[in-house]
Design a protein that fits this description.
Layout lengths: L6 E4 L13 E6 L3 E5 L5 E7 L5 E7 L11 E4 L20 H10 L1
Antiparallel strand pairs: 1-2, 3-4, 4-5, 5-6
Amino acid sequence: DSSRLNYLHMTVSDDQGKTWSEVEPTPIWGFPPHLLKLSDGRILVSYGHRRAAFGQRACISKDGLTWNPEDEVILRKDAWNGVLRDQLDIDNRPCNLVELMPRLTES
């Protein structure tokens, strides 16, 4: 589905959240997004990819404003659409994939 509704959207505030820019689509297709600021200042977003091949993907932005889908990383492509509805860890707690991966490797 190429509907613009399936792309991640963003809005920006330059005044600590008092005002916001108009909502604009990004070139990243998928949802829901989970954002993480990396120690070097880049922004990582992980998201469900809800079309074949179903799974989880991630992309990194240098500034959080520009995203290049050609840099997208496939984290997994063996899911079915229903499993993407809720992201729960092994204890059935809500989480995002960035949180889940370290927990699974600690066991």
